[in-house]
Amino acid sequence: MDLDALLLSRLQFAFTVAFHIIFPSFTIGLASFLAVLEGLWLLTRKEAFKTLYLFWVKVFAISFGMGVVSGVVLSYQLGTNWSVFAAVTAPVIGPLLAFEVLTAFFLEASFLGVMLFGWRKVGPGLHFASTVLVAVGTLISAFWIISANSWMQHPTGHEVLADGSLRAVDWWQVVFSPTFPERFAHMALAAYLTTSLVVGAASAWRILRSGPSPESSIALRMAIGMFAVVAPLQLVVGDLSGKDVQRLQPAKLAAIEGFWETRTEQPFHIVAWPDRAIEGNRFELSIPKVGSWITAGSVEAEVQGLKDFAPEDRPPAAIVFWAFRVMVGLGMLMIALGAWGAWLTLRDALGRGGREGPERSRAFLWSAVAMGPAGFVAVIAGWIVAEVGRQPYVVYGFLRTADAVSPIGAGQVSASLLAFMVVYAVIFVAGMLYILRLIAQGPQGEEEDAPVSDGQPPGNALAAAPPEHRP
Amino acid sequence: MRRIIEPPPEAGAAPSPLWRRLAWFVGLAVAGTSATAAVAYGLRSLLMP
After folding, report:
1. Which residue, A120, A186, A374, A452, has fewest beta-carbon neighbours within 10 Å?
2. A331 to each of A243, A323, A428, how far by Cα in Å?
3. What is residue B49's predicted lDDT score, i.e. its pLDDT?
4. Which of A41, A116, A123 is facing B21, going by the closest CB pair?
5. d(CA A269, CA A286)
6. Which residue of A111, A120, A130 is in closest CB contact with B9?
7. Shortest CA distance to A392 belongs to which of A292, A225, A276, A236?
8. Residue B25 and residue A45: Cβ atoms within 8 Å?
9. How do residues A201-252 score in pLDDT, each as one tens digit?
10. What is the Cα–Cα distance from A357 to B34, expressed in whole angstroms?
């Protein structure tokens, strides 16, 4: 394989964006979870909601910071590695990213401070408003990013100028391009799913280690409620998004399904290895006719295969095919986990479960722990389908990825890629380990810590004594 | 050790005057925005010729 500047730049962007997406896909859901926890605490004054809030807000603060820092790196790469893309598409993409900064980023930055440092200073009402504004800000951020990416998937509302650059002529069409609504819903639901799986796994882990507590039990049941509802809904929204792909990006659909021939009664390939060299699949395990039905709604429907497209216009089929199966496979497991958890909760609520609430089923708790990272893996797999499936274009049908790269050398990109790998390995691994340690410690961890010493050195017995009894 | 992330006030604690709470709210929001703007302009000045 020839490691030229193009391939290295693609690897670099893939590495940094895959790392970045972990954080927003967690913080979008976590911010809303925090808003719900604080709202419930204000309504009920139940101590468990406050304890949960104070625990998860720490995880949120660290994840949010890492998401911001890793996101800034992406913006710079548009200038350093993808300057042709930036120059050609800036009149369309630039304002969308600027709107993200002006609306979402500043909203989050302004009220995160109140959220973290202001509870005793601003009072409960204004603090709750700040938490809600931060949660709304994360969703607005996703709105603009998905809008920009959806435009890259199916560009509309622009015209091409004589010098080859673009100009927006209808901002409504640019912002709300045809695939945007389904893709935004798909991403927002993915974020909520990811967060609920992490919250569920952390709570299950605490229960397995220390037994049920009000905090762990509430968080586990809230998580079950979320993924039991959202996982099946995600399947429906994902199918709608798939219909967009069939209509607007038929080459991507052919790669997703491993279709090579254009025909009716396409089979559904459960597993296969799409091979460009033979223009076909190896090791197929398929169900006849079901592929046409799933993708086009009828076994008689003719669905395009990859051979309908010139070899240079086809996406890398094997990567897209398998990334899609990883995403859907994990989605199915999430639906199963949600149904299982909902069934255990319902039985418990109806008094038919005896000691079989979700907190009492070790099999369920271990399954919830195992599924903790599933949301992140599914999100990354989904983005691989979206981005690799759009190849060889960076702006579908208009600008090829090979034509979008900066005039830089492979040596320069290798050096920056290596630097990113080292920096990310040190800083972000340390951050993630810290988050995992916090999660393992659990919401009660802080309260279990040594008492506040009030100026006494750690370990001093006087620290635990009431101030009036100290010498 | 003082907690960086502030917990809510104890139940029954007398709230501070409204003007002070509003001032903190605006102050913290402006401080957050200003910090972001300072970083943004700092990075911009590094990049602009």
Report:
1. A452
2. 18, 12, 27
3. 67
4. A123
5. 4
6. A120
7. A276
8. no
9. 999 999 998 888 889 999 999 999 999 999 999 999 999 999 999 999 999 9
10. 49
Q: Tell me which residue of A219, A227, A221, A225 sits closest to A442, measured CA to CA.
A: A219
Q: What percent of chain A has pLDDT over 90?
A: 62
Q: Which residue has the tokens 């709608």?
A: A240
> What pLDDT, on a 0 to 100 scale, did the predictor assign at position A352?
67
Do the beta carbons of residue A254 and residue A305 sit within 8 Å?
yes
Give the number of other Cβ atoms within 10 Å of residue A171's Cβ. Answer: 13
**Between residues A255 and A72, the one the model is more confident about:** A255
Angle at A469 between CA A465 and CA B1, to 5 degrees: 40
Chain A to chain B Cβ contacts (< 8 Å): 81
DSSP state, A207?
H
Place of tokens 């401080």: B31
Q: Scanning every residue of chain A, which has its alpha carbon at the shortest distance from the alpha carbon of B10?
A: A120
Residue with tokens 């369309």: A92
For residue A68, the chain B residue with the least C-alpha distance is B36
Of A101, A106, A117, the CB nearest to B6: A117
Q: Is the CB of residue B26 less than 8 Å away from at least one CB of chain A?
A: no
pTM score over 0.90: no
Query: Residue A73's CB: how many other CB atoms inside 10 A?
Result: 19
Break chain A into its structural domains and give their ranges: 1-154+404-471
B43 to chain A, minimum CA–CA distance in Å? 10
Q: What is the pLDDT of residue A297?
A: 86
Question: What average pLDDT does the segment A188-194 reach?
Answer: 96
Report the amino acid identity of residue A258. Answer: G
- Residues of B with Cβ-Cβ distance to A101 under 8 angstroms: 40
Instruction: From residue A387, give the alpha-carbon distance in Å to each of A25, A85, A379, A452.
Output: 17, 15, 12, 50
Q: Is the ipTM of this complex over 0.85?
A: no
What does the block give as tokens for A290? 């079901």
The rounded mean pLDDT for chain A is: 88
Range list of H helices, A249-361: 250-257, 290-296, 317-349
Flag if A54 and B7 touch (Cβ within 8 Å). yes
Instruction: Name the residue facing B21 among A101, A109, A122 (closest C-beta).
Output: A122
B30 contacts A110? CB cut-off 8 A: yes
Amino acid, res. A445 = G
Question: Chain B contacts of A121, Cβ < 8 Å?
Answer: 6, 16, 20-21, 24-25, 28
Nearest to A277 by CA among A220, A247, A317: A317
Q: Is A450 helix (H, G, I), strand (E, B) or coil?
A: coil
Residues of chain A found within 8 Å of residue B1, distances taken between Cβ atoms: 452-453
Q: Is B48 exposed, middle or buried (0-12, 13-18, 19+ CB in 10 A)?
A: exposed
